[in-house]
Amino acid sequence: MPSQRRPLVAGNWKMNFDHLEATYFVQKLVWLLRDAHFDFKRCEVALFPSFTSLRSVQVLVEADKLKITYGAQSVSVTTQGAFTGDVSADMIAHLGCSYVIVGHSERRKYHPEDDANIVDQVRAVLAAGMQPILCVGESFEERRQGIELDFAVGQVRDVTRDLNDEQAAKLIVAYEPVWAIGTGMVATPQSAQDAAKAIRDDLGATFGQGVADAVRILYGGSVTSKNAAEMIAEPDVDGFLIGGAALDAEELCTIARLALKTSARK
Ligand code: PEP
């Protein structure tokens, strides 16, 4: 049976583009997709700008009723108060965000975001009515030891342990092997499929088949238009979380078109 999950092509801009550049990018991307008669009903395209650009993206999307969605790259675990520099989930939700990326390896590395903090971020995002995109994936060392599947499954389990079925069904998982992020070294389609399937099977064992079938599982790590089609042809890969290639509107448009076309054949 073909998958009921709508593919998601998500562009993580990281700390790139000020609000003027973000505005220009959104207009260019939407124009390119429209020119290609892109069917947003069959493939979702989401952007993850910096906090400083979210308002500009919201204004564009709402004014022109654009079909793209957007979200933030991280969130505070607290709701308000004396937390200088933090941004709460409600503040993000009030800007029309659908998603928040949680647990990206760069956040785990450069900020004090440990497993407990990531669990709290997921809870904060869900409580504010948005969906978390939970990033998991092994380092080169775990892959060398051959424990990459257990590692990624364990990271998802740590976060979902206290969630109910309804909350778990709202999760999006991005399998992003750390060694593949920004390196040009991409996982093979088979290893992305193996990880996505292991994560989906484990969600099924914990929450039941309905939840396992609902959760979208993305691959991230040096995705480009050269490798996107064969990656998304895999049955359990439902889209991408893209860094470098998402800074080029033409490239992102091409990847989205490949994702739509290839997943329609699954
Ligand atoms: C990412 O940052 O999530 C990512 C996958 O980056 P890149 O596509 O550049 O590897």
Automatic annotation (TrEMBL):
Pathway assigned to this chain's UniProt record: Carbohydrate degradation; glycolysis; D-glyceraldehyde 3-phosphate from glycerone phosphate: step 1/1; Carbohydrate biosynthesis; gluconeogenesis
EC number(s) from the headed UniProt entry: 5.3.1.1
PROSITE patterns: TIM_1 (PS00171), TIM_2 (PS51440)
Superkingdom: Bacteria
Broad class of the protein's primary localization: cytoplasm
Gene Ontology BP annotations: gluconeogenesis; glyceraldehyde-3-phosphate biosynthetic process; glycerol catabolic process; glycolytic process
The keyword ATP-binding is assigned to this record: no
Active-site residues from the entry: H104 (electrophile), E176 (proton acceptor)
Gene3D superfamilies: Aldolase class I (3.20.20.70)
A molecular function GO annotation: triose-phosphate isomerase activity
UniProt keyword list: Cytoplasm, Gluconeogenesis, Glycolysis, Isomerase
A GO CC term attached to the entry: cytosol
UniProt: substrate binding residues: N12, W13, K14, G182, S222, G243, G244
Location within or outside the cell: Cytoplasm
A Pfam entry, by short name: TIM
Catalysed reaction equations from the record: D-glyceraldehyde 3-phosphate = dihydroxyacetone phosphate
InterPro entries, per the entry: Aldolase_TIM, TIM_sf, TrioseP_Isoase_bac/euk, Triosephosphate_isomerase, Triosephosphate_isomerase_AS
Family of this protein: Belongs to the triosephosphate isomerase family.
Summary of the function given for this chain in its UniProt record: Involved in the gluconeogenesis. Catalyzes stereospecifically the conversion of dihydroxyacetone phosphate (DHAP) to D-glyceraldehyde-3-phosphate (G3P).
Subunit structure: Homodimer.
Name of the protein: Triosephosphate isomerase
Naturally occurring in which organism (per UniProt): Bifidobacterium oedipodis
